[in-house]
Design goal:
- The chain is an alpha/beta fold.
- It has a domain at about 1-110 and about 130-205: Dipeptide transport protein (Rossmann fold, 3-Layer(aba) Sandwich).
- About 30% of the residues lie in helices and about 25% in strands.
- The chain has helices at about 25-45, 130-140, 155-160, 185-200, 225-230, 250-265; strands spanning about 1-5, 50-55, 75, 95-100, 120-125, 125-130, 145-150, 165-175, 180, 215-220, 235-240, 245-250.
- Strands 3-2-1-4-7-8-9 form a 7-stranded mixed β-sheet, with helices on both faces. Strands 6-5-10-12-11 form a 5-stranded antiparallel β-sheet.
- α1 (about 25-45) runs parallel beside α4 (about 185-200).
- The longest helix is centred in the N-terminal third of the chain and has 21 residues, at about 25-45.
- The two termini are about 30 Å apart.
Length: about 270
């Protein structure tokens, strides 16, 4: 059994800011690494033969390699073709999303956004998705189910509507974008370890999130000039002041277009 783990930072317990200049960033890196390790430990305990971890926040070089489980493989740095899901393919059996957050525009959610401040909303075949939904669709392209998702309570609600079979672990309860009622790091790690174990016990119940092809991808950008920049990409349609659309053969192609749109506006992927 092979398990793929994508780790973001905003949904880690006790993380309230993620800018590398703030004083809590070094502590946040340790908490992020420890939550990843909790999932890795559960995977190996359930007989995994390979676990790949993708560092998926900002610079994509946040996890502390010296503190990661020695038997895990680490995808680190950027740019990379599949962004937060680089290294995933059809040979994996399960995907875990650790430290994830709600989509842009979600009320009260902790640090809600979608990839960057450029994006207001994204849709796949008309279905509104955030990073968790988009990445679940990438996993679905390879017919791999998202079995575990960890973050705040608003993320759990978002994912529950899209991936109802997934195991959802809440490590904090949002109060505002910059405050939450948190589990302590040790408690969150214990909860993730138990959640990952339950997810793998239920793996036969999990379903890949497969988006019908061709994939109609729409993205709402702010401010509007970003849509004008993105409209220069061949095949991208400029729908209105801030909306771009593209019809791709599959999620790999759509992911490439998303990267190009963000790069056109000096995004971070």
């Amino acid at each position: 059994m092979k398990v793929y783990i994508s780790v973001d930072l905003e949904g880690i317990a006790c993380v309230m800011q993620t800018n590398e200049q703030v004083s809590d960033y070094q502590a946040a890196r340790k908490w992020m690494t420890a939550e990843a390790n909790a999932a890795v430990e559960a995977a190996f305990a359930h007989g995994a033969t390979e676990v790949v971890i993708a560092d998926s926040h900002g610079s994509m070089a946040n996890l502390l390699p010296d503190e990661l489980h020695e038997d895990a493989l680490l995808v680190r740095g950027k740019p990379r073709p599949l962004c937060m899901m680089e290294g995933l393919d059809e040979t994996f059996d399960a995907v875990f999303l650790i430290g994830y957050h709600a989509m842009s525009g979600t009320a009260k959610a902790n640090m809600a956004h979608t990839y960057s401040g450029m994006i207001y909303a994204m849709r796949l075949n008309g279905v509104l998705v955030g990073e968790s939904g988009f990445n679940a669709a990438i996993a679905g392209h390879f017919r791999v189910p998202v079995a575990l998702i960890c973050g705040d309570d608003t993320l759990a609600a978002e994912v529950g509507a899209l991936l109802p079979w997934s195991e959802r672990v809440i490590v904090k309860w949002a109060i505002s974008p910059w405050s939450a009622r948190n589990l302590t790091p040790r408690a969150s790690q214990a909860r993730i370890r138990a959640g990952a174990s339950r997810a793998l016990d239920r793996l036969a119940e999990m379903e890949p999130f497969v988006v019908e092809t061709p994939v109609r991808f729409e993205v709402n950008l702010a401010p509007p000039y970003l849509a004008q920049l993105g409209a220069d990409i061949p095949g991208v349609d400029w729908i209105d002041g801030r909306t771009l659309a593209y019809t791709g053969a599959d999620m790999v192609e759509v992911t490439r277009i998303l990267r190009l749109i963000l790069n056109a506006g000096q995004g971070r992927l």
